[in-house]
Amino acid sequence: MGDPAGIGPEVIMKTLASPAIRGLAVFVIAGDKNVIGQAASIAGISAEELAFHPDPGPRTSGLELKEKCINVIDPGPELDDMAPGRPTDAGARKSLACIDLAIHLVRDAQNDTPKAIVTAPVCKEAIANIHPGFVGHTEYLQEAFSVKFVTMAMVGERFSVIPVTRHIPIKDVASSLSVDLISGTLEQVIQNRSVISGKDDPRISVAALNPHSGEGGKIGKEENDIIRPAVERAKAVYGPVEGPISADVVFYRALKKDTDIVVSMYHDQGLAPFKMVEFDTGVNMTLGLGHVRTSPDHGTAFDIAGKGVAGTESMQNAVKLAVRAITNR
Amino acid sequence: MGDPAGIGPEVIMKTLASPAIRGLAVFVIAGDKNVIGQAASIAGISAEELAFHPDPGPRTSGLELKEKCINVIDPGPELDDMAPGRPTDAGARKSLACIDLAIHLVRDAQNDTPKAIVTAPVCKEAIANIHPGFVGHTEYLQEAFSVKFVTMAMVGERFSVIPVTRHIPIKDVASSLSVDLISGTLEQVIQNRSVISGKDDPRISVAALNPHSGEGGKIGKEENDIIRPAVERAKAVYGPVEGPISADVVFYRALKKDTDIVVSMYHDQGLAPFKMVEFDTGVNMTLGLGHVRTSPDHGTAFDIAGKGVAGTESMQNAVKLAVRAITNR
């Protein structure tokens, strides 16, 4: 559900109001039943289309989902006084309980049905207040699924970007890079290349770190010392990997569709060009969890919550990408 | 003329083949007469349209330009064996002599006619071989015009970008920034805002250095310590300056035309998004020289030189911008 005071509930229900989307999978919302009920009415979804279930507890085998309905499980406790746009501690606590429920349903289910998590935006600061150390879905899921190394993929309609380093200061970027880190990222990108790109054999381009790709070592050594060896290692596994390529060239090629996936060395190098053209459409996908997790690439947007004006393209794409990842459709 | 073996001569002559462009100003090419003659025939410009002049020497007062013609001054010596796509030392030497001539014509002319330099691409490495220390037009012109501080503006059709730091390794970016450097850059941007944007009161946005604009200091201190004070100082001079703004937001706004000019903290932060959409159209303009200098934003493209296929949009825009800068047209 995301933060109950944000646009999460609304974009979820508006997205699920589409019969085409509903036909893709059986949907289960981990959310507050009142908040979801209100969002359903904003989205024009009738009460008959919703199926409420009790929290299945440690065993999920008793859960009988209704395939034609939007299934809603409320992990409790009920929220009082929720107003759109006004985040509260209780709301943050509930959004975290919903994440826990989603993890539980995917991780501990006693059946073989393929499952994916699509998260809606939470208020990181508010959750950190009640759960110290919370920095975001990605890291929380990484811990829940007990994996050492995950990669953030930003999947767009035009091209996709995977940053090797994420939320660190620019001054620490160069010293954080290593052949192993870039290789590990490329490995997960290569494994997930078809899901990310929707193609069997996408072209993967690796951005340089320094201006003009270091100009032969004159503007930095990392291209030769770190990036090139990692690219060579990746090429041995999957041919269509190239790089390092100047950042001011590689995104031009990506927009022209001369390449499909760009691996960037740091956050803004990839996300500034990506969000310039995919702000409303991009999807955040976590690679390496052992389970599929996607998310729209926008925040809680408290300023427009409850007004019925939130756009759903990014959430629609997040749902479609999750379905593609588990079904190869 | 740029490097005689590159696409410079061809894009110059193709650009000047347009009557609309020719009507904007009196054009003088500092170039090799044979190379320019060949480029003229590729561009469909007849011999009668060209007016060759001898090098005017230290005094420029004897130079009588023909307004209806394309004036060509060859600083000598004549080039033998020039072949498109094959850079030579002699060609590099000649391209440098042409820059010197252009500087001389603009700096030392004994009349009040407004003048501008439009440069064509040179081979930096080849010039550095015969003139050690040459790193590019910008620095060479800075020295020739005896100015301490210049700024590189990338002027596009959609938006423009001015990087505060340029050709330095990423590891040195954070430590190279200071309130004074950003303020000095903003000062030149504010002075030249109308030329850059084509508007009287463009909006100027300053990018953050770190991901998510430093998230309130959690991902870097430079936003609060360095960028914000510089933005406040600039705002006191010119109101519509805002920042710091996350790089993954500011270029989205620029493409939507919610802002006109983005000041970026480093090369790729600005140039990756800029060249993604302005690769064929962007113009490089040097601010702070005391004279107007523009340049197309592409290289010598030796691989396609002499084939008649080089695009001219960037050179056309460079000429138009130079004219706008000296005439306010």
Question: How does this model look, in words?
Answer:
Two copies of one chain form a homodimer. Chain A is 40% helix and 14% strand. With 329 residues, chain A is α/β, with parallel strands linked by helices. The longest helix of chain A has 19 residues, at 89-107. Chain A starts with 7 loop residues before the first helix and ends with a helix. Chains A and B meet through helix 7, helix 11 and helix 12 of A and helix 7, helix 11 and helix 12 of B.
The share of residues in extended strands of chain A comes to 5-15%
Mean pLDDT of chain A: 95
Helix content of chain A: 40-55%
Overall form of chain A? elongated
Oligomer: homodimer
Largest sheet of chain A: 8 strands, mixed
Helix vs. strand class of chain A? alpha/beta
- Spans of at least 5 consecutive residues with low confidence of chain A: none
List keywords for this structure.
11 strands, 329 residues, 13 helices, alpha/beta, homodimer, 8-stranded mixed β-sheet, elongated, 14% strand, 3-stranded parallel β-sheet
Secondary structure layout plus pairing:
The structure is a homodimer of 329-residue chains.
Chain A: H1 8-16, H2 19-22, E1 28-30, H3 33-43, E2 50-53, E3 70-73, H4 89-107, E4 116-118, H5 124-130, H6 137-144, E5 151-155, E6 160-163, H7 173-176, H8 179-191, H9 193-197, E7 204-207, H10 222-237, E8 241-245, H11 247-255, E9 261-264, H12 267-278, E10 283-287, E11 292-296, H13 313-327
Parallel strand pairs in A: 1-3, 2-3, 4-11, 6-9, 7-8, 7-9
Antiparallel strand pairs in A: 5-6, 5-10, 10-11
Helix pairs in contact in A: 1-3, 4-5, 8-10
